[in-house]
Amino acid sequence: MKLKFVYKILPAIVIFTDRVPAGSVGCANAMIVRIRPKYEGDEGLLQHELTHVKQAYRLLILFHSLLYLLDDSYRLHAEVEAYRKQLEYSPDKVTDTARFAGFISEKYDLDISREMAAVLLRVKDD
Predict the structure, then answer these.
(1) Where do the domains of the chain lie?
(2) Are 31 and 10 in contact (CB under 8 A)?
């Protein structure tokens, strides 16, 4: 277990366990992050999950949880933000962009093609 901080002051508890949803290697629920022990050294994955913790804090936890569950456009926005953060740590951005686009289009019950997900991963919201 590790204690991390987002926004430099808000706590996030990181637990390395195989008790994550099937087909996932990590998940974040509010300020609790669970990552499979095999991926303990994967900084990109950790940052992806910590991005979800930031999202939860930004929307006072409850609102983030409700929006994530009920609003496909919010869930898409949340995952694109988290995968973009994960890509910052990737040694092979081209391959990982394609891989993450596949995750977004297949794992989150979103009506989006792999190609469109890849475009969203490449476009910055500046």
Answers:
(1) 1-70, 72-126
(2) yes
